[in-house]
Amino acid sequence: xxxxxxxxxxxxxxxxxxxxxxxxxxxxxxxxxxxxxxxxxxxxxxxxxxxxxxxxxxxxxxxxxxxxxxxxxxxxxxxxxxxxxxxxxxxxxxxxxxxxxxxxxxxxxxxxxxxxxxxxxxxxxxxxxxxxxxxxxxxxxxxxxxxxxxxxxxxxxxxxxxxxxxxxxxxxxxxxxxxxxxxxxx
Length: 186
What we know:
Elements: H1 12-32, H2 34-49, H3 53-65, H4 75-87, H5 91-96, H6 98-109, H7 114-121, H8 128-143, H9 148-151, H10 163-185
Helix pairs in contact: 1-2, 1-3, 2-3, 3-4, 4-8, 6-8, 6-10, 8-10
């Protein structure tokens, strides 16, 4: 029996299947009934505010590039929703964030405390990326107050990708790394 309770992950394949179905439905609305897309997108926001990690991942997907004439691109919203989805255990979201989390995960696995982290968190080789990615994202969400209920109420505004915006998120990951390690060894 485990020493502590760790909320379950949403399995990668299950998350992908649910994501694919919902994305197909929303894409059909974009092509055939644009106003229905907007209404459905608001419903997805409501689901995300209630901790539906697939809904969070869908929001991230659409904010990443936006939808011409319907939804502005918002790089910050994209990463914030993906981070929250990952923090709540969506394996697909964790996988999508590897470009942002990879260095931090490597830093943890190469740290002197790694064997203690493995032992205390019951990490197996097959779930290293997911356990560490989830922990990093949980710390990011906590540190930066990414609360789905509040995030869902924000207006849809345009904030395109810039190298500076990416650097800000990378710095945030670097800054929470020591806290994440402390959390994992506690």
